[in-house]
Amino acid sequence: MFNDEEAEDDGENDVTEDDEGDMELPPRDFMDTNPTEVKGDPIFEGDILLTQSQWRAMREKKGIAYETSYWPDDSDGLPFCTLQICSHGMDHWMEHTCIKFQETTNINQPHLKYIYGGGCYSYIGMLNQNGQDISIGSGCDTLGIVAHEIGHAMGFFHEQSRPDRDDYVVINYENIQDNRESNFNKYSTNIINSHNIPYDYSSDMHYGSTGFSINGKTTITTKDYLAQTLIGQRDGLSHRDKHLANIMYKCIDKWLAKCGESQDPCQNGGYYGAGCACVCPSGTSGSYCETETGSYYGALQSSCNEKVTTEGTLTSPNHPNKYPNGPEGQCIKWIQAPECHVPKLTFSAFELYGKNPYCNGNSCCYFDALEIRTDNLNYGEVFCGTSITPGTSFTGTGREMVLYFRTKSDYYTGWSADLTFEKQEGCE
Ligand SMILES: [Zn+2]
């Protein structure tokens, strides 16, 4: 609930372009800069190129016959890419799977053709044709993005398209750009075979929180609120991404055979690796990953994430000094008041990077934002610049409230607010 009408977002208090003119603008997400079509083939879900026949199959929900979309054992990729980042991406895949990329001179066969296209995109799986484009264009030069596009070429869909995604995330269609809703489709088990690998918020194939947002509000909410900061990482393949690839391409079977083992002895999400030993996920230890020491996401959780059950002062990281950008600047404060009480948050400071018209042409808090969820815990009003005047209060309609702070810049000092728990009227 928004209590201070005067602070309502009218843009007047926003940091102007001039104020920020000497600062380097953080990069935009490639999902927002990619084209929607390449040479007549539609771009699907932001960065998946479909052939016309794949497009028809997807629309008719018949799906791609998976095994035939896998690359055969003896195939040669054609990693022609002048950017060093392409080799890094392929090296990353080769380091963690048994898939081999080799340059080939025989172009009369299926192979990958790296191009510097108008964005980052790829086909799903191997096409039965002589070569298929994988574009590593402007803004795509990070290991995690290249590994993501190679993931599509190897047969990976987006994580949030999995048949079981509704158990883990909520899609907020009201915040998605018009005609972009199909980017959030969920597919049946006929199309996506997850091979019993659990859903992974930290997958390199998962969309971020505000993908295709029309207003800067969250489009994908994690059902575990504290996991919100995990989605959309592009640092490289997650443990479960690697595990899935190694099942799809029968790498684990090959390694077991090579090492004289008959079955995978690894437990708790571990798998048998190239070094004749278990590759264990975070949160496990021991030769067979048999000891559970923490959670799979433990090492990735932002240190400023917390469940708040006591009154006090909440701040952005490092406040009153500048907050960091990237993963360190991502915070969820999940507030829970005692029974018959509601949380009330009163700001004493607020200074973030200002608005930018990158949300489908609408001015929104594209780079840095504080989303305050007061009634609906899946998303809320989004603030940036100086649009919250000190003294402004926000009160929850129920016992819970969620603050979601995200950053792509590190130029400002952030926010500070005092949390109190108010007696809820009529509650005994
Ligand atoms: Zn993608």
TrEMBL record:
Its cofactor is Zn(2+). Residues 1-33 are annotated as: Disordered. GO terms for biological process: proteolysis. The active site is at E149. This is Metalloendopeptidase. Binds 1 zinc ion per subunit. Its EC number is 3.4.24.-. The keyword Hydrolase applies. It comes from the Eukaryota. Keywords: Disulfide bond, EGF-like domain, Hydrolase, Metal-binding, Metalloprotease, Protease, Zinc. InterPro entries: Astacin-like_dom, CUB_dom, EGF, MetalloPept_cat_dom_sf, Peptidase_M12A, Peptidase_Metallo, Sperma_CUB_dom_sf. GO terms for molecular function: metalloendopeptidase activity; zinc ion binding. SUPFAM superfamilies: Metalloproteases ('zincins'), catalytic domain, Spermadhesin, CUB domain. Residues 1-23 have a biased composition (Acidic residues). Zn(2+) binds at H148, H152, H158. Residues 289-428 form the CUB domain.
